[in-house]
Amino acid sequence: MFLRIVLIAAAAYFSIKALIWLRRYVRAQIARARVRDRREDPALGANEMVRDPVCGVYISARDALPATVNGVTVFFCSQECLKSFVERRG
Ligand SMILES: [Zn+2]
């Protein structure tokens, strides 16, 4: 009888521990995913480095010339690159 109570108590203790660990793990994964999303969004953050698709140069998003092409924001290092990108697309 006593042994059974100890076993039930132990089982309850470990399942609560497992639940707490699982919740912490899920939260950590969500936080990590948020950081990843922020990094991959080229429209956010002035310190982000973006690549000019014309000359291939990397520039900070703050200094770049943004242009929206088919709903996607593309960044250029100069008016010349922006112009040649537009011309190349017809
Ligand atoms: Zn360029």
Q: In what order do the strands lie side by side in the largest sheet?
A: 1-2
Cα Rg: 26 Å
Pairing-aware structural class of the strands and helices?
alpha+beta
Shape: rod-shaped
Compute the number of structural domains: 2
Terminal Cα separation, in Å? 84 Å
Mean of pLDDT: 85
Bound molecules: zinc ion
The profile of the biggest β sheet is: 2 strands, antiparallel
Q: Strand tally, please?
A: 4
Strand and helix map with partners:
Elements: H1 2-40, E1 49-51, E2 58-60, E3 65-69, E4 72-76, H2 79-89
Antiparallel strand pairs: 1-2, 3-4
The structure holds zinc ion.
List keywords for this structure.
90 residues; 2 domains; two-stranded antiparallel sheet; rod-shaped; binds zinc ion
Question: What does this protein structure show overall?
Answer:
This protein has 90 residues and is an alpha+beta fold. The protein folds into two domains: 1-40; 44-90, no CATH class. 56% of the residues lie in helices and 18% in strands. The chain is built from two helices and four strands, in the order H-E-E-E-E-H. The chain has helices spanning 2-40, 79-89, and strands spanning 49-51, 58-60, 65-69, 72-76. The strands form two sheets. The chain has a two-stranded antiparallel sheet with strand order 1-2. It has a two-stranded antiparallel sheet with strand order 3-4. A hairpin with a 2-residue loop joins strand 3 (65-69) and strand 4. The termini are far apart. 7% of the residues are buried. The model has no long low-confidence stretch (mean pLDDT 85). The structure holds zinc ion. Zinc ion binds at residues 52, 54-55, 57, 76-78, 81.
